[in-house]
Design brief:
The protein has 305 residues and is an alpha/beta fold. The protein has a single domain, classed as Metallo-dependent phosphatases (Purple Acid Phosphatase, chain A, domain 2), CATH 3.60.21. The protein is 28% helix and 23% strand. Strands 1-12-2-3-4-5 form a six-stranded mixed beta sheet, with helices on one face. The chain has a six-stranded mixed beta sheet with strand order 6-7-8-9-11-10. Helix 3 runs parallel beside helix 4 and helix 4 packs across helix 5. The longest helix is centred in the first third of the chain and has 22 residues. The N and C termini lie far apart (72 Å). 43% of the residues are buried.
Amino acid sequence: MFVIKIINSFRNNLYLMKDEDIERPHAMKVRQGIQDAMTYSLPDKQFSEKTIDLVEIDIALDNLGWNFNNYKILNLTDIHLGQWINPKYLDSLIDYVNTLNIDLITLTGDYFSYNIYDYEECLENSLKKLTAEDGKFGILGNHDHWMNADRIREIFKNSDVIDLSNDVYTLKKGEDCLNLCGVDSYTVCADNLDKVIAKMPKNIPSILLAHEPDFASESSQTGLFDLQISGHSHGGQFIIPGVETTPFRGPNSTKYPVGLYQVRDMLQYTSKGLGTNSFRVRINCKPEVTIITLKTNKKRKITIE
C-alpha cells in the first residue's frame, strides 16, 4: 500500500509538471528546498557502485572504420545535482567513472534542477576530474536552460568539456572518421538540427547527443545519424519488472522512455540517468552509467602472401 501511494503521488506530480513547469519553472524552486532537506537527512547519502546500474551495450554501425571498432563511449546524464545527489556523492561517482576503461565521455544534460548557485562550484570541480583519452563532450538539458545556460557553458569551458549544443566534432583515427554531433534542448526550443546538418561532414558514421529522447522522431528522418544518445526521462523512475518499460512518460519522452530502440534506420538509446526529479523514488530503476562499445559491420580484408 505504501509503494502504491508513492507511485500515485509521483505520477500525479509528473503529469502536473507538463504545462506549468515548462512555462513557469521558477515556481518549482520551493521543491528544491524540500529536496535539500531530504538530500542531507536521508541515511544513504554515500555513493556505492552497488547502487547503480552499469549498462554496457554493443552498437554496430555501418561503415564504421576499423580504427573505431571496440571504441568505448561513456555517457552520464541527468545528474540533477542537489536533488538527493549531493556534492560528495557526485565526487565519488566521478572517481568511480575514472576507473573504467573508456575512450570518450558524453554528458547529455540536466546537471541541475532548481538551484544552481549552491552547487555550481561542485559541478565544475567534478567535471574537471573526469578523464578520457579523446575528451569530454556535453549538451544542455531543459533544467540547465531554466537555471542559467550561460553559466553552465562557462563551467563546460573551465572543465575542458566541449560544448556540442547545435555543433559537430569529427573524430579522426588514421583514415577513419566519426561525427559526434549535438543539439540543444528541444523542450525549450533551443535545438537547431539544420545548423548541425550544415556543419557535419557527410557519408561517415554519425552519433547525435540529444537530451530529449523523442527528438529521435525528427533526427531519424534525416537519414544522417546512426545513433542518438539521450536522457531526460530518468527511465520514468519506475520500470515494470519483466516488461522493462515504464508507465510514467513525461513531455518529450513518451515514445522512447528507456533503453534501446530502432527508429527508422537510426538506433536510439535512452539512459535512466543518475538523479531524480521531484521525488527521491526509483523502483526497479537504478541510476545508470552507460558504456556504449561501437562495433564495425565492415569486413576486414586479409592479404595472403
